[in-house]
Amino acid sequence: MSDAEKFKKILRDYAEEKLSPSDEKKIEHLIVKHAAKNRWEWENESHKKQLEQKIISGIEQKIRKDKPKKTRLFYYSTAAAAILVITFGLFWKIGKTPSDENTVILAQAKELSSEQIIVQSSNGDITELASEINILDLQNSSVLDQPKPNATTTIQIPQQKQLNLILPDGTKVWLNAGTKFEFSSKLSKEDKRIVKVDGEAYFEVTSDKQHPFIVNTHHSNVEVTGTQFNIKSYAGENFVETALVEGQVSFNTNNKTYKISPGRKITAHVDKQTIQETAFDIASETSWKDGYFTFNQTDLFDVMSQVSKWYNITVKANKYINKVKIGGTFPKDLPLTDLLKDLSLLSNVEFKIEGKEVILIR
Amino acid sequence: MNNQDLFDFSTLYKEHWENLFKQIIRILPDEDEASDVVQQTFVDLWDIREKLSEIRSIRSFLFIMARNIAFKRLKQSLREETYRNNFANNYSSTESLVDDWLVYKELSTLIDHEVEHLPSKMKEMFILSRFEGLSYAEIAQRLGKSDKTVKKQISNAIKILKLKLSAKYSTPLLLILFF
Q1: Across the interface, do A14 and B78 touch by the CB < 8 Å criterion?
Q2: CATH 1.10.260.40 corresponds to the domain A100-109+291-361
Q3: pLDDT band at A125; cut points 50, 70, 90
Q4: In the CATH hierarchy, which top-level class contains the domain A118-158+163-286?
Q5: Which of A174, B8, B34, B155 lies 20 to 30 Å from A73, alpha-carbon distance?
Q6: ipTM for the assembly
Q7: B9 and A348: CB-CB below 8 Å?
């Protein structure tokens, strides 16, 4: 392949979102870096003046379009600048209060019974895990006493907590905040290893062809032998999403089976009975288990849905906010106010916190 | 930056538009497209003018905004094969770009591996700095550390990585990745 062909291939991958965020940054950097060798200059002074004027009038038009007040913005005197401050200052204040009928609820906080991780056995035992525990190894420890035959164990994760669980068969599971996870004490001995998820979980399944691993959710089940994948399915939401990092999974919903290949994710909308298969960005989908929110041109509403689950807050928005995209990585141990401050700067949307509610205002 | 300066929008424009335009036309090699990006940048700036006091350097802030808009549009246009071919054919230094890219791809696999083994705080700062492109000040703010600590930790991280990788690879290659 010639360099030109290689370059076109890279550009194509870039355009089709096939590069990782850091690869994407790198190619953007290289495009600027190497293009810089070609210096660009004005043909003459009037060429420059023309363009300067053209851009100015464009800006004026656009700014005026979304403000009712017709004001010429580009006065070149300080006096005029002072008048502008007053005019727009006033309008800005008026424009700020959202009325109720324009507000939609994006995500709802849950009633949680504890602020600690709870492990509950079907024979009645309830254990609250100490708050510093974030790994629970059921292969080697006796945290859960001697499991009785046919007992199921349920683990509930509260807000702002997550748990890395190692199941008796060696399978690793990461459970996100607000998730309920259920498994049988005989997991490693039965024909099929069956677990149940309400919420979000990331799996690294120990390979065992004889004993397929099955994840049940409210709307689907996912069957694998050994593989890495993320699954999202909350009882209160009408979709289930499975993103495959490695291996192969079969995704079953509505009596239909779909095979997914690595790097693809499948979203099933339960009400509409539709299935959507797309590529996904591994970092955005899985970095929650490493303690980060990673957004890659993610829609603000999706961002807030994740934020709502982690901090267990209700999120409302002025319905005219749409098409806002967010990119970046944020540690999940930040106080909510800090995170919102960052998001506000990036999105130009304001966040108002009222108790357990966050309201988005534009 | 006080309130008066903040709304002195036209001064900001006069001061920065030309520099911005010259930077952006390297990304989008078309006068109309580049001026459109400059225009959008100032419209966006106007929308967030209330927050300008939180921005440390208006110059680099404007540049980052413009750059993001430009690449978003470039990416969109590059989906079309004709545009892609034109862009590639008119690009002046394809060969050196592709060379840099291939070296980067090969090394980044190795770096990723080594970065995983850095101490956790150091790793976090390094990732924010090199892969997310945050400044030392931004990282310091986000993690609640001083600028100095962040700078020190990142330079230590680079030292460690260089040491581990230079055993296998020559230093000039590593420079491509880190600087």
Answers
A1: yes
A2: no
A3: confident
A4: mainly beta
A5: B34
A6: 0.72
A7: no
